[in-house]
Amino acid sequence: MGIGDHEFGSGLTDLKLSIIADYLHRYNTALSKQPFFERWYFDAFAGTGERTVRLSGSHGDLLSEPVEERIERRRGSARIALDTTPPFHRCIFMEQKKRHWLALEALCTEPQYSSQKAVVVRGDANKAIQDHINSVNWRKTRAVIFLDPYGMNVEWRTLEAIRRTEAIDLWYLVSLSGLYRQATHRGSALDEKKRAALTRMLGTSAWESAWYEEERQGSLLSKLDSEETRRTASLDRMESFVLQRLRDLFPTVLEPLRLRNDRNAPMFSLFFAMSNPSPAAARVAKPIAQHILEKARARR
Ligand SMILES: C[S@@+](CC[C@H](N)C(=O)[O-])C[C@H]1O[C@@H](n2cnc3c(N)ncnc32)[C@H](O)[C@@H]1O
What is the C-alpha separation between 227 and 76, in angstroms, rounded? Predict the structure, then answer.
């Protein structure tokens, strides 16, 4: 693989990125009418700026010609942000993997982006956000942050730091398959690592009593009667738990968009939240996000 090669996703990635592209354009258009504010974009799990999509070929038959497998390079979220019109005043890309941050640094120096202030922060995005995001002058800055991890890498404390800015709109891709994997069906299979991962992401250990119920094993007469817990929460209930947690933290959180893979299995929920409690801010950004999410629901 080359430095910029980053193969991931499918139809759901196209949908997710088209939502982000649409929001960034509409957000900057709306905010450009308030020139007092600088517009910033944060991409905390930024990738490389590109993605590689493998389009499978076919052998052909009586009615159709054979088609060769094709590899296509498409824009990732970092390039989408840099291409946004009107542009952002500053783009901050965070990335932990060396090959990816090198690709992002090369992307930022492409001549067409030379007038933009684009920087790459190497290392763990949770740490960078928790340590630095509240040192920005948020009185004159408004921002969008995109949290697009592979799994359950976003810590609750990162969301708390974002909330404290009162100036950032958040798009957060929550991994349902990650939740499902960590919250095992049998409670006895929940080890300390899985418990810690869920609690770090959800900011509470209350998920365990909300999702698990005791189940008595053995017969009434048996002396070896033992207790086991079992997850009774469905995917809907687990998603609602996340929604409620976000609603406890952020003043505005929209109903998430469920994203499915090519075999129709639910993989992620895409959440939109606003940290700004002002009704004026909600009047600008909320209808834009609502419209985009409704359009995406109608497309499915
Ligand atoms: C799903 S990809 C992001 C794709 C990107 N949004 C795009 O559209 O091109 C997730 C990225 O997060 C990076 N990553 C994982 N854990 C991280 C962390 N703790 N801090 C920063 N980056 C991280 C991975 O190396 C990977 O490049």
Answer: 48
Q: How many domains does the chain have?
A: 1
What would the pLDDT profile of 160-219 be if each residue is shown by its tens digit? 999 999 999 999 999 999 999 999 999 999 999 999 999 999 999 999 999 999 987 655
pLDDT of res. 57: 74
123: domain CATH number is: 3.40.50
Residue 6 has pLDDT above 70, yes or no: no
Ligand 1 geometric centre to CA of 6 (Å)? 10
- C-alpha to C-alpha distance for 265 and 287, rounded to whole angstroms: 29
Decide if 228 is inside a domain.
no
From 95, 121, 152, mutation site for ligand 1 pocket: most ligand atoms within 8 A of C-beta: 95
CA of 209 to the centre of ligand 1 (A): 31
Domain of 96? 11-176+252-299
72 within domain boundaries: yes
Predicted model pTM: 0.92
Phi, psi dihedral angles at 186 (to 5 degrees): -90, 130
163 SS3 class: helix
